[in-house]
Amino acid sequence: MGLVQAVTGAVGGMLGDQWKDFYTVPDGLPSTAALFAAVPRGTNAGRGSNTHGSSNIITNGSKIVVPEGYGLLLFQDGKITGFAAEPGGYEWRSDDLNSQSIFAGDGLVGPLIKQSWERFKFGGQPGSQQAAFFVSLKELPENRFGTQSEIYWDDGFLNTQVGAVTRGSYTLKIVDPILFVKNFVPASYLQPGQIFDFTDLDNAAAGQLFNEVVGSLAPAFSLYSNDPAKGNRITKLQQDSLGFAKSLSDAVENGYQWKSERGLAIVKTAIVSIEYDANTRELLKTVQRADALAGSRGNSNLQASVAQGIQSAGENGGAAGLVGVGMASGMLGGVGNLQQPVAPAAPAADDPVAKLKKAKEMLDLGLITQDDYDALKAKALGL
């Protein structure tokens, strides 16, 4: 009985595999699918008779259509034998005995007998495995990352360690499909009907990538915030998705060799939120105040404040108040790199030169008018 079954299976399968196949992408494919098997179309709108071929044999002369944005990987007995990156229709040709077909000009009697005999030795099934897989060459979206607690990095601008909780997403691209399949994709996904999807929560390999991205966030923030080309400002990060994507891609490459060993690269990022810790928020407030008081605007604000202080001191505290304002303005020197006027030493009461110098300084500060200065000058010189 076993012999009869083997012969029947060998002859029946061999005859079914004589038909040329038409392969394309499966129906209902998710947009985030990265790798999946090409599927044969045995029927179309009720027409077609190619429904009994072996699932692991591709007949010579079969056509495989590669759509835009995908590459085609060919396998023979578990080994990658070919790759096509351009869209279009391709014809399958193999020297394997099981792929030979009378419809592809491979002969009639000889190949049929040889195929039957080979399949008989394997219990009626072909002793070979052939497969065609599509691999996405597009940007694959919706790859999310996030931290549950603060991550810390050394910030070049703040000159200290800062921390934040962050979350966002990135797009991923397969830049070397052969490395990707050889070094990263589990064997369970190299089967008909399986779809490798980075966003699949049950995909352990994708989960590993998520953990590696989270582990690379602190180095990525450090690379970005300490890059002089980025202005050393971490606050620019959310406005620079491409710049941070490069920092994150460099960080995962340095730590986990995504591109060189797995054929993967991060292309773009979207930072949804960055929540700095309390110390960092206070530092950023100080930086914002310093920025607001920097340069000529800061000098103008300071001069106006000093003038107002001198006027108030003169009204309320006399000479003692003026001395206090001078001390305060001296203490402000250096804040925000402002150029502050230095309070002069109190001149001797009977020194006309000192009086004129003081009057000139007050004129330059706008505290007195030219007429006031001329009057003080005439009085000091006894004119």
UniProtKB/TrEMBL annotation:
Classification via PANTHER family: FLOTILLIN BAND_7_5 DOMAIN PROTEIN (PTHR37826), ZINC-RIBBON DOMAIN-CONTAINING PROTEIN (PTHR37826:SF2)
Coiled-coil residue windows: none
Species per Swiss-Prot/TrEMBL record: Pseudoxanthomonas sacheonensis
Name by which UniProt lists this protein: Membrane protease subunit (Stomatin/prohibitin family)
CDD domains: SPFH_like_u1
Top-level division of the source organism's lineage: Bacteria
Gene Ontology molecular function terms on file: peptidase activity
Assigned keywords, A-Z: Hydrolase, Protease
Example GO BP: proteolysis
